[in-house]
Amino acid sequence: MKKSKYNVAVVGAGAVGIEMLRCLKKRNFPVGHLKVLARSSREMVVDGEKYQVEAISPEAFNNVEIALFAGTEGEKGAAVTYAAEAVKRGAVVIDNGADFRMDPKVPLVVPEVNAKDIKNHKGIIANPNCSTIQMVVALSPIHKKVGITRVIVTTLQASSGAGKAAVDQLKDELKMIAAGDYNDIHANVPNKAMPQQLAYNVFPQIGGFVEDDFTSEEWKLVKETHKIMGDKNIKVTATTVRVPVRTGHSEAVYIETKKTISPDEVKKLLAKSPGIVLVDDPKAGLYPMPKDVEGRFETFVGRVRRDPFVKNGMWLWVVADNLLKGAASNAVQIAEALIA
Questions:
Q1: Across the strands, what pairs with 239?
Q2: Catalytic: 249?
Q3: Which end of the chain has a smaller Cβ tally under 10 Å, C or N?
Q4: Is 103 inside a domain boundary?
Q5: CA-wise closest residue to 111 among 282, 284, 331
Q6: Out of 130, 143, 186, 226, which one is annotated catalytic?
């Protein structure tokens, strides 16, 4: 039954949890009672507004109707411990962590792509990985129109994708370089959250190295794309790269399509697709960049061009705010679709 307001819990008081609180407010989600849950109780302030953070417990989910779990990439999230308790008490869990994404009983949802899968939930809905979300938003309209047979993607992922500690590491390294100290920066930086120096550097490792020497992040792009787009026949391969950017993931995406489609047709298709902003006038220096998309909910696409050597080959450049569309706002959009 549709209601005018819903009791919501945000689980997690880190970067993604804070963005979830902002998104609920900015998108005017019909919140009745709101609670913020974390490991320990405290007061926190977001944009001048005070929130009383409660210590998480099974009982904290009593009377909660929608529970947004902020999750932590690469770690076992709070949802492993508390999702079942929240569901048992009547909540629908929307989890940003990686723990339930590939569970066949749990829908993995990007609302612009597969909102219809929400109705199959059994109490838990998973939010995909940040790099997957923006890619499938851009590719789904093309796949529906002409079919995509192959995807080769190189991601350029911001430090905030690895959490606040990684952003702090980048800041500390930049300060050391600005002070003229180039000696073994990575060894001497006080807080190391990433496996390599990031300032003045890029490195091709996000997650651990697993099957066939691809990283866990690279395999997420493969498996999650198959699940969200409902097509395991798409050949997806990825290289994921950490870059010295604060917020905003960029992706160079190469696709091959079943049927021929021109770059102009792709641009027209993307320009009218929900959740996409086309920025594509390269001669005027107009294309998506992380600095311009920070704080925006949409996925930005540009540099659409044909491969001159492969009949149905095409390139796209895809950029989005990884904390918003890549996490918090996608989760809130799932909640919006859920109550609709």
A1: 154
A2: yes
A3: N
A4: yes
A5: 331
A6: 130
